[in-house]
């Protein structure tokens, strides 16, 4: 669709709290679908209407570094 509007939206799985982003594209006609979590298979998001979601990606986060605050302070 040449004149479509795309936005990036973020979703969190209710089953395991995994975060995902997806691209939302507006359409003139009705689309429906759902996306399931790749970790626990729970439905993360379902949709029906003049839009479609694609390019689902897991959000990569850095794990916490325990004790880093004190290590940086020289203690």
| Rg for CA atoms | 18 Å
Please give the alpha-carbon distance between the first and last residues.
58 Å
Number of DSSP E strands: 3
Based on Cα principal axes, name the global outline.
elongated
Main β-sheet, spatial strand arrangement: 1-2-3
Classify the secondary structure makeup into a structural class. mainly beta
Number of domain units = 1
> Biggest sheet, open or closed, and with what strands and sense?
3 strands, antiparallel
- Taking pLDDT < 50 over at least 5 consecutive residues as the criterion, the unreliable ranges are none
How many helices? The count is 1
Mean pLDDT: 85
Beta fraction of the residues?
over 45%
Q: How is the quaternary structure best described?
A: single chain
Name the helicity range: under 10%
Give the ordered list of helices and strands. EEEH
List key phrases describing it.
single chain; 75 residues; mainly beta; 1 helix
What can you tell me about this protein's structure?
Helix content is about 5%, strand content about 55%. It has 1 helix and 3 strands. The chain is mainly beta. The chain starts with 5 loop residues before the first strand and ends with a helix. The chain has one domain (about 5-60). It is elongated and about 55 Å long. It has a 3-stranded antiparallel β-sheet, with no helix packed on it. The chain has one helix at about 70; strands spanning about 5-10, 20-35, 45-60.
Strands, helices and their partners?
Blueprint: E1 6-12, E2 19-36, E3 43-58, H1 68-72
Antiparallel strand pairs: 1-2, 2-3
